[in-house]
Specification:
The chain is α/β, with parallel strands linked by helices. It contains seven helices and five strands. α4 crosses α5. The longest helix is centred in the last third of the chain and has 16 residues.
Length: 192
C-alpha cells in the first residue's frame, strides 16, 4: 500500500502579517488564517487523511480543526511539532532582530546553524518533529492508514522534511521547501 504524507503549514496570524518571528509564542489565527483553514479543509479533505498529527499551538490546532471535522480523522496534538524555539527573537520583526542580535541575524541570513535568541537550531527542531512523525506512522494501529496529514509550522516542517529525506522516508527534489501560510504538499512515505 502506498502511503501519503500531507504536510500543511498553519494559516496566517497577525504576527505573520507583521513579519514577526513567532517561534513557540502561541499566537492565534487572524481572520485571513481562519478562512485559509477552511480552504485547506476543502482542498485536502478529498485526500481522506485518516490521521492528523498536529502541533499543540493554537494556530496549528485551528488550522487542523476544519480538516478533522470534514474527514472525521483522529487528531493527535503534540509539542514535538511546535515551531522552532527562537528564544529572545520571538515577537521581534526583522529590523528589531538585526538591531538587537546583529551577529546572529547575519549568521541566520547566511543559513548557518545557530541558536537564534538562545533557542534551538533548525536541525534540532527538525529531528524532534521527524522522530515524532516516524513514530506515529510506525504505530501498528496506523498500518492501514493510507494518508496522514501533518499540521505544523514553516521552519519545523522544512527541517523535519530534510531529516525525513535524509532517513529515506520521503523523497525531495532539491532542498526542503519553504511553506507559505496554509500551503500544503503531498509526499510518498517509503517506510513500512
Amino acid at each position: 500500500m502506498m502511503r501519503r504524507l500531507v504536510v500543511i503549514r498553519h494559516g496566517q496570524t497577525a504576527w505573520n502579517a507583521e513579519h514577526r518571528f513567532q517561534g513557540r509564542t502561541d499566537t492565534p489565527l487572524d481572520e485571513t488564517g481562519r478562512k485559509q483553514a477552511l480552504e485547506v479543509a476543502r482542498e485536502v479533505g478529498p485526500l481522506l487523511p485518516g490521521l492528523i498529527l498536529c502541533s499543540d499551538l493554537a494556530r496549528a490546532r485551528c488550522t487542523a480543526a476544519p480538516l478533522a471535522a470534514a474527514t472525521g480523522a483522529e487528531v493527535i496534538f503534540d509539542a514535538s511539532l511546535e515551531e522552532i524555539d527562537l528564544g529572545a527573537w520571538e515577537g521581534l520583526d526583522h529590523a528589531e532582530a538585526e538591531s538587537r542580535f546583529p551577529a546572529e541575524y547575519a549568521a541566520w541570513r547566511a543559513d548557518l546553524p545557530i541558536r537564534r535568541g538562545g533557542g534551538e537550531t533548525e536541525a534540532e527542531a527538525g529531528a524532534r518533529a521527524a522522530a515524532f512523525i516516524s513514530a506515529q506512522l510506525a504505530r501498528p494501529d496506523q498500518a492501514a492508514t493510507a494518508t496522514v496529514a501533518v499540521v505544523a509550522h514553516g521552519t519545523v516542517l522544512r527541517a523535519a522534511l530534510s531529516r525525513l529525506a535524509e532517513e529515506g522516508a520521503i523523497d525531495l527534489d532539491g532542498p526542503s521547501p519553504r511553506f507559505a501560510n496554509a500551503e500544503w504538499r503531498v509526499f510518498t512515505w517509503h517506510h513500512a
